[in-house]
Structure formats: C-alpha cells, structure tokens
Amino acid sequence: QVRLVESGGGLVQAGGSLSLSCAASGSVFGLNAMGWYRQAPGKPRELVAIITRGGSTNYADSVKGRFTISRDNAKNTVTLQMNSLKPEDTAVYYCGVKSIYEADPRYWGQGTQVTVSS
User: Fold this and answer.
1) Residue 32's pLDDT is what?
2) Taking all residues of the chain, what is their mean pLDDT, rounded to a whole number?
3) CA distances from 19 to 28, 38, 78 (A)
4) Residue 65, Cβ density class (10 Å: 0-12 exposed, 13-18 middle, ≥19 buried)
5) What is the separation of C-alpha 45 from the centre of its chain, rounded to a whole number of angstroms?
6) Residues 6+ apart with CB under 8 A from 107
7) Rounded distance, CA 28 to CA 80, Å?
8) DSSP 61
9) What pLDDT, on a 0 to 100 scale, did the predictor assign at position 18?
10) Rounded CA gap, 37 and 35, in Å?
11) Is the pLDDT of residue 27 over 90?
12) Greatest CA separation for the chain
C-alpha cells in the first residue's frame, strides 16, 4: 500500500504562483512515475504533469511554460511549481503514482484545492 500526502494549494490572484508538494510512503518500489492531475467542477480529471524516476517529464499543453514538475527520489517527493496562474487553473489537484506501464495512477492523494481569482 502507498500513502500520498499533499501540501500546498490555496487561493491566489491571476498571475501569481503556488507550489504543491506530495510525499509518498509505503511500497513505492516499481511505482516510478509520479504526477499531478486536476479536476475542475463538471470536468473529468486530467493530467497536469508527470515525471519518471529518471527525470523524464510530460506536461499538459495548457500548462507548458508555466508549470514545472520536479522530484526527489531519495525522499519520494514530487513538487509542482505553478507560475503565471490563470483562473482556468482553478481545480482540485491530485498527486498520483503509477508504474510507467499503467495508464492511470494506482494510488491517489486526497486532493488539494487551488483557486485562482481574476
């Protein structure tokens, strides 16, 4: 079993920045992709950014150039630095971990609210 604990999030004005962090504990061996997903009201959950243990990253087109994902393999943590935030970034953000062979995360965090005011 894997436990994911998220921190960060909150309310920020458009153009501002926020940082989200997620710490994984438990049986993380083999779950080498850590990522952030988000779900806005009335919309399906979507991938925001994901990073492998080797440092390969993938971003949603909507956040490229504004968000940066990073990880600390020794601590099993992943961080999402969000800059130039827009109102459309408002959503609940979830940390997820999976193997590179899985389409969707096997484990999820509890979610953290990000609200960007215009």
Assistant:
1) 87
2) 95
3) 23, 14, 11
4) exposed
5) 12
6) 1, 2, 3, 4, 24, 31, 96, 97, 98
7) 19
8) G
9) 98
10) 7
11) no
12) 42
Query: Could you tell me the pLDDT band of residue 3, with boundaries at 50, 70 and 90?
Result: very high
DSSP state of 109: -
Average pLDDT over residues 91-97: 97
Give yes or no for residue 21 having a pLDDT over 90: yes
Residue 32 corresponds to which amino acid? N
Return the C-alpha torsion angle 14, 18, 22, 23, nearest 10. -170
- Beta carbons of 24 and 97 less than 8 angstroms apart: yes
Amino acid 87: pLDDT: 97
CA atoms within 13 A on the CB side of 91: 21
| Residue in this structure with the two tokens 């919309």, named with its chain if needed | 43
Provide the pLDDT for residue 28: 81
Q: Say which residue the tokens 């971003």 belong to.
A: 59
41 vs 45, 102, 114, CA distance in Å?
10, 26, 12
